[in-house]
Design goal:
By secondary structure, this protein is mainly alpha-helical. It is built from ten helices and two strands. It has a two-stranded antiparallel sheet. The longest helix is centred in the last third of the chain and has 31 residues, at 215-245. It starts with a helix and ends with a helix.
């Protein structure tokens, strides 16, 4: 308790907490985009529950990993080499997760451009509930490990990490349904989000092979693309309103 009081009185700890909360929220948005795209393929009555389960799994994985911080740190130690490049378990997980994101996003883009006959005629979901939760769990694990290693690199205080994780997951819970509804109501946003997933997948693979990609560049590109798409949406709405008025 005394250590917590001292931590609360330390301005450096508050600065670390604020920075880490922002970082965790940003990483959580990546996770949330994937969850939204996957759950939107389920029947309407299952979507909200699947999103809550997916975000709940993300919270459980992050808190569980925080309980093994000492072990998580060792995930960055090389376990074998490929072409002279040492790869750690973290690298392997990031590469595998990046490849999974590339495969999943490419598959979803293909279905968006050339839907299966069943999707054209049935109008229902093209993904089973268990399969959706399984895919969400895989990406939750990848993003959770990346999230906790980021936290470990920014502070050594576990209470700060826990608060940052809880804040990020709270934002995910609040934003989950509105984001999913927005994506479902704007088909062009789905393609943009899938493009984001491809970029995130490539970033994870690059990070896994030791090529550091500044996150600021990635999120600036995402923000610029989202801004352009927002202008397109406003333009379409203005044209629709003008036609209705006529």
């Amino acid at each position: 308790m005394d250590s917590l009081v001292q931590l609360a009185a330390d301005p450096t700890a508050w600065a670390a907490l604020a920075t880490l909360v922002v970082m965790e929220v940003v990483l959580g948005i990546d996770n949330l985009i994937f969850i939204s795209i996957i759950t939107n393929k389920l029947p309407v009555e299952q979507q909200s529950r699947a999103r809550r389960i997916g975000i709940g799994l993300a919270l459980i994985l992050r808190l569980a990993l925080l309980g093994t911080v000492a072990y998580i740190v060792h995930l960055t130690q090389p376990v074998f080499e490929i072409l002279g490049k040492g790869l750690s378990w973290r690298d392997i997980i990031l590469i595998a997760g990046g490849l999974f994101l590339l495969w999943k996003a490419t598959k979803e883009i293909h279905h968006s451009l050339d839907p299966d006959p069943a999707e054209k005629t049935g109008g229902g979901a093209s993904l089973g509930y268990a399969a959706a939760i399984g895919q969400i769990l895989i990406l939750d694990l990848v993003f959770s490990i990346d999230s906790i290693i980021t936290a470990v690199g920014m502070t050594e205080h576990v209470p700060i990490m826990v608060i940052a994780v809880l804040a990020a997951v709270t934002v995910m819970l609040v934003a989950a349904d509105p984001l999913s509804r927005f994506i479902a109501a704007n088909p062009t946003v789905v393609m943009l989000a899938l493009g984001f997933l491809i970029m995130i997948g490539m970033t994870l693979i690059a990070e896994g092979f030791g090529a550091h990609v500044p996150k600021g560049y990635v999120y600036t590109a995402m923000a610029f693309s989202a801004g352009v798409e927002a202008l397109n949406i406003l333009g379409r709405r203005a044209k629709k309103a003008k036609r209705n008025a006529a």
